[in-house]
Amino acid sequence: MNNLITSTQQNGVLIIKLNRFDKKNALTNAMYIQLCQLFTQAQEDNTVRCVLIQGDENCFCAGNDLEDFLNSDENSDLAAFKFIKILGAFNKPLVAAVAGAAVGIGTTMLLHCDMVYAATNSKFKLPFTQLGLCPEAGSSLLLPLRLGANRAFELMVLGESFSAEQAYNYGLVNKVCQVDELLSIAKKTALTIATLPVESVMASRKLIRDASQAVLPQVMENEAKAFFRLVNGQECKNIIAKFFS
Description:
Helices cover 50% and strands 16% of the residues. The chain is an alpha/beta fold.
């Protein structure tokens, strides 16, 4: 693996760090492949009891790398959606530390997390329709369950950015932290989770998620079909191409 994503393991916690800060941690096909590998390893490794995903104090994830996205082929599409499926089926506690940009998948992946901490400098955005696309990562199910259909429509169709405080009020994050405290607070929580009785934690997590999990795979499949149709349409291609013209 290259250093665009790094990982360390400490006391039962796998810490995954997005490390492409010159591009605001925009995800490429290669990075999706790395994330697939790391989450699969975490799922299979009994010594991993919790996963923490983070950037740094200034940036979490600016979504897909549009240039990589524009040049993507079928394999690239499969890598991104393979990660989404792995994320949706992941059965261990997942903690996120968010700062700065959390755009697209940088926000929708948080819907699969069990604890989310956001720094005061966080900015969330779901610019699906602005790119000629549609929701992904199960967000068309999970976001309305959190916020109701009207608010979910507002965030995913109008696509306006919202703050950490708004995300907290929407129930998308557990706590808003000072920038310099974010990573330590998130890590402390992940380490605490890792010390709890494993079977009890796993059973509790499953019970909490069972209602949505029953239909989530089909929702993701429906999203993928719509997404592929839209991304291959001329409208989406024209919008993305404008970023580089």
